[in-house]
Design a protein that fits this description.
alpha+beta, about 40% helix, about 90 residues, 3 strands, elongated
């Protein structure tokens, strides 16, 4: 049975928006550091598995650089500093 009532209810939808400022921690190739040193550093500093660290080391070797971690500047900066303290060139972009 249709009583002829048509109504629309306006509903306001609130969306929570999280602004994420993702940065990349990039390690660069050099002619000084050994594969083992780079791998061990990535395992220790970035909590990579040995396999992840080996893959990054090969990418660094062949491509000249590799993004080894992403996240906020606040979480990447200490990792970048720790990698640089080991004599490896790393930068946050």
């Amino acid at each position: 049975m249709d009583f002829g009532y048509n109504y629309e209810e306006e509903v306001e939808v609130l969306e929570e928006v999280e602004i994420v400022d993702n940065k990349s921690l990039v390690v660069y190739n050099d002619d000084v550091n050994t594969f083992d040193h780079v791998i061990n550093t990535l395992v220790k500093v970035c909590q990579h598995t040995v396999e992840q660290a080996e893959q990054c080391a090969w990418i660094i070797h062949y491509k000249g650089k590799c993004i080894v971690k992403t996240g906020s500047f606040k979480e990447l900066k200490p990792k970048q500093e720790a990698i640089c303290e080991k004599g490896i060139d790393a930068r946050v972009h």
